[in-house]
From TrEMBL, chain A:
Endpoints of the signal sequence: none
PANTHER family: SMALL MEMBRANE PROTEIN-RELATED
Subcellular location: Membrane
CC per GO annotation: membrane
Membrane topology value: Multi-pass membrane protein
Pfam families (UniProt xref): UPF0220
Organism domain of life: Eukaryota
Protein family according to the UniProt entry: Belongs to the UPF0220 family.
Transmembrane segments: 20-41, 53-72, 97-119, 131-154
Name this protein carries in UniProt: Vacuolar protein sorting-associated protein 68
TrEMBL record, chain B:
Protein name: Vacuolar protein sorting-associated protein 55
Species classification: Eukaryota, Fungi, Dikarya, Ascomycota, Saccharomycotina
Subcellular location: Membrane
Family per similarity comment: Belongs to the OB-RGRP/VPS55 family.
Lipid biosynthesis listed as a keyword: no
Species: Wickerhamiella sorbophila
GO cellular component: Vps55/Vps68 complex
Keyword Transmembrane helix: yes
A Gene Ontology biological process term: late endosome to vacuole transport via multivesicular body sorting pathway
Annotated keywords: Membrane, Transmembrane, Transmembrane helix
Length: 167, 113
């Protein structure tokens, strides 16, 4: 007798679909947070600090990284022996390099948004209303990174017919 | 569905500001990718590769839905539209989307049985 909490049985296809939906929603949330910041900067900003091209660069980087990461073919990443056959022989390290580049873009975007907050807003000693633009920038890249992770995890849900998900 | 459209058009017309009509476009676009990319994933026994097209469709659906919710909020926050207009367009968009989904499920089931 075990006292484990039994999760309701969700099929892996459903989990996968939900993950992908959530990923799209997270991406949209990140994007619209940034759009909101830019529009706010254009319409309601009481200061002379405005969102420029530089502020969009982290978003672009993160989006590129997300695209690159999710374009990598999963089966290429692992190589080894299974059932006596060697699989994924050629192209493995290329796939890993591409994955690495994608991750670099992703983290570069995140680091870039932190840098923008530091260089544009904190070091010039900006105060209340406009420093939020920097924070929202970070938040939006974090959201998009989460979206990317979500998509990756959702696509890695075992979609074979193993019923041992809860073990 | 008509109620939803009426709400959205009113939210535009009452305040002489037609930005809210984008919301209709978002909520109308939301079910489209799924129906285009098909539901072939879960039933296909033999296919080893995950259906990337269906996943892309789902991703787009999530994106559009979130856009439909986020756009009025963004517009209202920025001051492009009124808060009342935001509420009306949100409610209207929700009604339109729910009616579309209900229609879709009924259609799907009647097709199957």
């Amino acid at each position: 007798m075990s006292l484990r909490i039994h999760l309701p049985e969700v099929s892996s296809a459903t989990m996968r679909a939900c993950g992908v939906y959530a990923s799209g929603a997270l991406y949209a949330a990140g994007f619209y947070l940034m759009l909101d910041t830019a529009l706010w900067s254009a319409h309601k900003n009481p200061t002379d600090m405005h969102i420029g091209f530089v502020d969009w660069i982290p978003l672009v980087l993160v989006t590129l990284g997300m695209a690159i990461i999710n374009l990598v073919e999963r089966s290429r990443l692992t190589s080894g022996m299974a059932f006596g056959y060697e699989y994924g022989g050629h192209g493995t390290w290329q796939a890993r390099v591409v994955l690495f580049v994608g991750t670099a873009f992703l983290s570069g975007g995140g680091a870039g948004s932190v840098l923008i907050l530091l260089l544009r807003y904190i070091i010039p000693d900006r105060s209340r209303p406009e420093i939020f633009m920097g924070f929202f920038n970070i938040l939006s890249s974090i959201l998009i990174m989460n979206s990317s992770t979500c998509l990756w995890l959702a696509q890695n849900v075992k979609d074979d017919y193993s019923y041992s998900l809860q073990h | 569905m008509t109620l939803g459209f009426v709400l959205i058009v009113l939210s535009g017309a009452l305040y002489e500001n037609w930005l809210t009509l984008i919301v209709v476009a978002m909520f109308l676009l939301a079910p489209l990718p799924n129906s285009l990319c098909g539901h072939t994933t879960s039933d296909d026994f033999m296919s080893d590769a995950p259906d990337l097209l269906a996943d892309f469709g789902r991703f787009l659906t999530g994106f559009f839905l979130m856009s439909g919710v986020a756009l009025p909020v963004v517009f209202a926050h920025v001051g492009l539209i009124n808060t009342n207009a935001m509420l009306m367009s949100l409610a209207g968009g929700g009604i339109v989307y729910i009616s579309l989904i209900t229609f879709g499920t009924f259609f799907y089931e009647s097709d199957e049985y």
